[in-house]
Structure prediction request, 174 residues.
Amino acid sequence: MDLKKSIRNIPDFPKKGIQFKDVTSLLKDAKAFQYSIDKFAQHYDDKGITAICGVESRGFIIGAALAYKMQLPFIPIRKKAKLPAETISVDYNLEYGSDTLEIHTDALSANDKVVIIDDLMATGGTMFAAAQLVEKLQAKIYEISVIIDLPDLGGSDKIKEKYNFLSLVEYEGH
Prediction:
């Protein structure tokens, strides 16, 4: 299946010159969404994965569906002050500013082997922050995964220096 046919391009969003790759159109296409989750599940089958970590917000959708499919726990990695129990946090830089991610302190342990998943890899800042949180809890990261990679922004190359990386689709440009 050609997933690119299910991903729409939004020119000049969130600012002029950006060609935004909108995964919500893929989520709306039931066959493309199911295909994406099935591809991830097949890739991670028999790898000893113990949890799926999804990064807010579209990583929640993809990660929760994958965790359900694989019958694994889903661990949310959220923006600051959104999780109700005790958390740890990491500040990070975005392409358009800075932010903070958090995870519950009891979400993972040294016995866990996880996949961190989101919809898109751009500069890698969000994924590195998510990885730091997982590592602070002493869990092992098996792989960092996305549906869409924008390799020209350099994030996936930086991620690959330290972690295994998987994307289902790549686009040139920004």
Q: What stands out?
A: Residues 30-44 form the longest helix (15 residues).
